[in-house]
Amino acid sequence: MVSDTFVDTSALITLLDADDPRHDAVGAALRSMAGVRLVAHAYVIAETIAVARRRLGVTGVRALIDGLLPILETVPVTAEQHATALARYRTSLPSATSFVDQVSFEVMRDLDLRRALALDADFAALGIEMLPAD
Protein backbone atom coordinates (compact mmCIF):
# COMPACT_ATOMS: atom_id res chain seq x y z
CA MET A 1 0.00 0.00 0.00
CA VAL A 2 1.16 3.51 -0.80
CA SER A 3 1.65 5.77 2.21
CA ASP A 4 1.00 9.50 2.53
CA THR A 5 2.13 11.16 -0.67
CA PHE A 6 3.21 14.67 -1.58
CA VAL A 7 1.70 16.10 -4.77
CA ASP A 8 3.82 18.47 -6.86
CA THR A 9 2.87 21.15 -9.38
CA SER A 10 4.31 19.04 -12.20
CA ALA A 11 1.80 16.24 -11.53
CA LEU A 12 -1.15 18.59 -11.08
CA ILE A 13 -0.48 20.38 -14.38
CA THR A 14 -0.06 17.05 -16.16
CA LEU A 15 -3.37 15.84 -14.74
CA LEU A 16 -5.07 18.98 -16.06
CA ASP A 17 -3.53 18.74 -19.53
CA ALA A 18 -5.05 15.82 -21.45
CA ASP A 19 -2.58 16.49 -24.29
CA ASP A 20 0.45 15.92 -22.07
CA PRO A 21 2.06 12.60 -23.03
CA ARG A 22 2.37 11.68 -19.31
CA HIS A 23 -1.28 12.49 -18.52
CA ASP A 24 -2.48 8.86 -18.53
CA ALA A 25 0.42 7.59 -16.40
CA VAL A 26 -0.07 10.30 -13.77
CA GLY A 27 -3.83 9.71 -13.79
CA ALA A 28 -3.32 5.98 -13.28
CA ALA A 29 -0.90 6.64 -10.41
CA LEU A 30 -3.42 8.97 -8.79
CA ARG A 31 -6.24 6.45 -9.16
CA SER A 32 -4.07 3.78 -7.55
CA MET A 33 -3.82 5.93 -4.43
CA ALA A 34 -7.50 5.89 -3.47
CA GLY A 35 -7.71 6.42 0.28
CA VAL A 36 -4.15 7.74 0.55
CA ARG A 37 -3.51 11.11 2.19
CA LEU A 38 -2.41 13.44 -0.62
CA VAL A 39 -0.53 16.50 0.60
CA ALA A 40 0.52 19.73 -1.06
CA HIS A 41 1.54 23.05 0.45
CA ALA A 42 0.12 26.48 -0.23
CA TYR A 43 2.99 27.50 -2.54
CA VAL A 44 2.37 24.49 -4.80
CA ILE A 45 -1.28 25.50 -5.05
CA ALA A 46 -0.37 29.11 -5.88
CA GLU A 47 2.18 27.99 -8.48
CA THR A 48 -0.24 25.50 -10.03
CA ILE A 49 -2.99 28.11 -10.32
CA ALA A 50 -0.60 30.51 -12.07
CA VAL A 51 0.75 27.89 -14.48
CA ALA A 52 -2.71 26.47 -15.21
CA ARG A 53 -4.09 29.93 -15.98
CA ARG A 54 -1.18 30.69 -18.32
CA ARG A 55 -1.14 27.31 -20.11
CA LEU A 56 -4.72 26.09 -19.90
CA GLY A 57 -6.81 29.19 -19.35
CA VAL A 58 -9.87 29.63 -17.18
CA THR A 59 -11.10 26.10 -17.91
CA GLY A 60 -7.87 24.63 -16.55
CA VAL A 61 -8.04 26.69 -13.37
CA ARG A 62 -11.66 25.70 -12.80
CA ALA A 63 -10.76 22.04 -13.27
CA LEU A 64 -7.99 22.45 -10.71
CA ILE A 65 -10.18 24.22 -8.16
CA ASP A 66 -13.23 21.99 -8.62
CA GLY A 67 -11.64 18.62 -9.38
CA LEU A 68 -8.16 18.33 -7.88
CA LEU A 69 -7.89 20.67 -4.91
CA PRO A 70 -10.74 18.96 -3.03
CA ILE A 71 -8.76 15.69 -2.90
CA LEU A 72 -5.62 17.36 -1.52
CA GLU A 73 -4.74 18.32 2.01
CA THR A 74 -3.16 21.74 1.67
CA VAL A 75 -0.72 22.48 4.47
CA PRO A 76 0.59 25.93 5.29
CA VAL A 77 4.24 26.82 4.89
CA THR A 78 5.77 27.91 8.18
CA ALA A 79 8.08 30.88 8.50
CA GLU A 80 10.90 28.49 9.41
CA GLN A 81 10.28 26.29 6.34
CA HIS A 82 10.19 29.37 4.13
CA ALA A 83 13.47 30.72 5.56
CA THR A 84 15.26 27.39 5.31
CA ALA A 85 14.04 26.86 1.75
CA LEU A 86 15.09 30.37 0.76
CA ALA A 87 18.60 29.80 2.11
CA ARG A 88 18.84 26.47 0.28
CA TYR A 89 17.46 28.05 -2.88
CA ARG A 90 20.09 30.79 -2.74
CA THR A 91 22.82 28.17 -2.40
CA SER A 92 21.34 26.08 -5.21
CA LEU A 93 20.91 28.96 -7.69
CA PRO A 94 23.36 27.46 -10.20
CA SER A 95 21.02 24.45 -10.45
CA ALA A 96 17.53 24.42 -11.91
CA THR A 97 15.82 23.57 -8.59
CA SER A 98 12.98 26.02 -8.05
CA PHE A 99 12.20 27.86 -4.83
CA VAL A 100 8.84 26.07 -4.62
CA ASP A 101 10.64 22.71 -4.88
CA GLN A 102 12.98 23.76 -2.06
CA VAL A 103 9.90 24.56 0.04
CA SER A 104 8.43 21.17 -0.93
CA PHE A 105 11.55 19.39 0.29
CA GLU A 106 11.32 21.20 3.65
CA VAL A 107 7.62 20.39 4.05
CA MET A 108 8.23 16.76 3.10
CA ARG A 109 11.08 16.49 5.63
CA ASP A 110 8.95 17.98 8.38
CA LEU A 111 5.98 15.69 7.60
CA ASP A 112 8.21 12.65 6.97
CA LEU A 113 6.80 12.20 3.48
CA ARG A 114 8.96 9.94 1.33
CA ARG A 115 6.81 9.63 -1.80
CA ALA A 116 5.79 12.22 -4.33
CA LEU A 117 3.38 12.29 -7.22
CA ALA A 118 5.76 14.37 -9.29
CA LEU A 119 7.57 14.46 -12.60
CA ASP A 120 10.39 16.71 -11.48
CA ALA A 121 13.78 14.97 -11.38
CA ASP A 122 14.81 17.09 -8.38
CA PHE A 123 12.64 14.86 -6.18
CA ALA A 124 14.28 11.66 -7.42
CA ALA A 125 17.74 13.21 -6.94
CA LEU A 126 16.97 13.43 -3.21
CA GLY A 127 15.98 9.78 -3.04
CA ILE A 128 12.25 10.48 -2.88
CA GLU A 129 10.13 7.68 -4.32
CA MET A 130 8.48 9.02 -7.45
CA LEU A 131 5.03 8.17 -8.70
CA PRO A 132 4.42 7.34 -11.42
CA ALA A 133 7.53 5.22 -11.59
CA ASP A 134 9.31 5.50 -14.90
Describe the structure.
By secondary structure, the protein is α/β, with parallel strands linked by helices. The protein contains six helices and five strands; from the N terminus they run βααβαβααβαβ. A five-stranded parallel β-sheet has the order 3-2-1-4-5. α1 (9-16) packs across α2, α1 (9-16) runs parallel beside α3 and α4 crosses α5 (99-111). The longest helix is centred in the middle third of the chain and has 27 residues, at 42-68.
Q: What is the structure about, briefly put?
A:
The chain is an alpha/beta fold. It is built from six helices and five strands, in the order E-H-H-E-H-E-H-H-E-H-E. 56% of the residues lie in helices and 12% in strands.
> What's the architecture of the domain at 5-76 and 112-131 in CATH terms?
3-Layer(aba) Sandwich
Number of helices: 6
CATH topology of the domain at 5-76 and 112-131: Rossmann fold
Q: List the uncertain runs.
A: none
Descriptors:
alpha/beta; Rossmann fold; five-stranded parallel β-sheet; 6 helices; globular
Write the SSE topology.
Blueprint: E1 5-7, H1 9-16, H2 23-31, E2 38-41, H3 42-68, E3 73-75, H4 79-91, H5 99-111, E4 115-117, H6 121-125, E5 129-131
Parallel strand pairs: 1-2, 1-4, 2-3, 4-5
Helix pairs in contact: 1-2, 1-3, 4-5
